[in-house]
Amino acid sequence: MCLGVPGRITAIDDAASLSAWVEVAGIRRKVSVACIVDAAHPIEACVGEWVLVHVGFAMSRIDEAEAEATLRVLAEIGELAVEREAMLTTEATA
Amino acid sequence: MKHADEYRDHDLAKGLAHAVAGQLAALGATEARPIRLMEVCGGHTHAIFRYGLADLLPKSLEFLHGPGCPVCVLPRGRVDDCIAIARHPDVIFATFGDAMRVPGSTRSLLQAKADGADVRMVYSPLDALALARRNPDRRVVFFGLGFETTMPSTALTVLQAEAEGIGNFSILCNHITIIPTLRAILDDPLMELDGFIGPGHVTMIIGTEPYGFIASEYRKPLVVAGFEPLDLLHAIHMILQQKLDGRCEIENQYQRVVPNTGNPVARKAVERVYEPRATSEWRGLGDIALSGVQFRPAYRRFDAEAIFALRGERVADPVECRCGDVLKGLAKPWQCPAFGGACSPEMPLGALMVSSEGACAAYYQYSGLQNSALDAARNKVPA
Ligand code: SF4
Predict the structure, then answer these.
(1) A74, B38, B302, B332: which could form a disulfide with B64 (CB 3.0–4.6 Å)?
(2) Is CATH 3.40.50.11740 what the domain over B76-177+262-307 is classified as, yes or no?
(3) Across the interface, do A84 and B126 touch by the CB < 8 Å criterion?
(4) Helices A64-93 and B229-245 meet at what angle, rounded to 10?
(5) Which residue has the higher pLDDT, B217 or B181?
(6) Residue A6: its chain B contacts at CB < 8 A?
(7) Domain range list for chain B
């Protein structure tokens, strides 16, 4: 129930009630964007954005740059671990 | 979704698991004296089982499954209240699907529906409001349960009902807040834990600041995590790194979705409609002060508690249930005498067996323990 799903805002439904169309895993449904719009980021600016949808509300904008930055960190940790392992095993066999 | 596959990358997961194993060894953790991390959120519990993370990691890391599944902590008496409301002939009772199968003292909402009550499953509180719009001669009551993640959605729905002047809509509010409960867990003298995997979507609303006391007062690290397997492994790696560095901090692994400041717009809606409740009952944990919210007087006309005379009775769990111990991480699901026997996903006795976010249902479904646990349950003297 607390899980959110990522979806993409495809169109404005009704600007006055802050309702927009979102495509979530191939399903189109209306969601409220009340929590992610403000004066600096009006509803028009939301079209095309990836958002996290929770029980019919867009609750957060998904930050693509952050998503990629995290992946880069993960790749580094993973590679380091593999290398460390390799060093340890070579030492052991040496 | 873009990136979703990358966050499930198998090779990368293996690399991370290696790194975590190295950290655990450096910390001197062993199977007998493991590092114990509590994942607060039921969504994380589900992901840990679904992706088999416990099997990927050494036994010197132990997961404690925390109380962060709102369905699992729903008290029996509250389910009785829901059913009492749903039985009114003019009421349409709308709820999230997860709550339908939670056992009350004699039955669940699903059974009440089979008996003739008009109970409807909805995806969003906005769908319940639409029901009220379409059925002006009926009273539509939405069961508002959940943590801070879900509170803004019911608060905004009430504000929408107010704006449209919809008079036949109300909410039975069972919203609870995670922070006082984390403090209660930390104050439990039996509790031994080394750090927290912080709830992702709660934090998306409240931000990281409210967790500050966990690091400053209780000297435990907390890392807010996303829900993909790599997110969880990454968060574990970050917690262990803090241990290795001798740090205790609140960190955020889930930056792509969770800003450290949370969502101020959502918080404002919540503050407008709700105020703290003196005390709230949690199934298995009992009463926790200031751990829930109620309607502010200005919004009482949307408060099903005020509209319907509820008995609000406390109903104790059956004696064989060890839900409370499981919720606090003091017992594993299979140590409960009812596990797999009197309590199964088909016929849940406790609420932890109802939702896939509940520790007992997750164990039952994913760990392949069904048979051994069934045997154990049959042969065991109740602990
Ligand atoms: S097995 Fe059932 S009764 Fe036992 S702790 Fe789990 S949910 Fe509660």
Answers:
(1) B38
(2) yes
(3) no
(4) 60
(5) B217
(6) 1, 4
(7) 76-177+262-307
Q: What is the pLDDT of residues B145-173, one digit of tens each?
A: 999 999 999 999 999 999 999 999 999 99
* Residue-by-residue DSSP string for B137-153: TSEEEEEEEESTTTHHH
What per-residue string of b and e applies to B226-244 under the rule 16 or more CB within 10 Å gives b? Answer: bbbbbbbbbbbbbbbbbbe
CB atoms within 10 A of CB B341: 17
**Which residues from chain B sit within 8 angstroms of residue A36, using beta carbons?**
263, 265
The confidence band for A94, taking pLDDT boundaries of 50, 70 and 90, is: very low
> Which among B257, B261, B272 is the top mutation candidate for probing chain A, defined by the most A β-carbons within 10 Å of its own β-carbon?
B257
CB-nearest partner of B19 from A34, A64, A81: A81
Total structural domains in chain A? 1
SS3 for B38? strand
User: Which of A34, A70, A78 shows the shortest C-beta gap to B16?
Assistant: A78
Give the closest of B70, B126, B147 to A56, CB-based: B126
Q: Does residue A23 fall inside a structural domain?
A: yes
Q: What ipTM is given for this predicted complex?
A: 0.87
CA of A7: which chain B residue's CA is closest? B1
pTM of the shown model: 0.90
Query: A82-86, B143-147, B219-223: lowest mean pLDDT where?
Result: A82-86
In a domain, A94, yes or no: no
Residue type, B169: F
Q: Which residue segment(s) compose the domain that A30 sits in? A: 5-89
- pLDDT at residue B380 tops 90: no
Confirm or reject contact between A13 and chain B (CB < 8 A): no
**Which protein residues are within 6 Å of ligand 1, measured from CB?**
B 321-323, 326, 333, 336, 338-339, 343, 349-350, 352-353, 360
Place of tokens 């902590």: B73
The 10s digit of each residue's pLDDT in A28-83 is: 999 999 999 988 899 999 999 999 999 999 999 998 888 888 888 888 887 777 66
Cα(B144)–Cα(B147) distance, rounded to whole angstroms?
Answer: 10
Contact B153 A85 (CB under 8 A): no
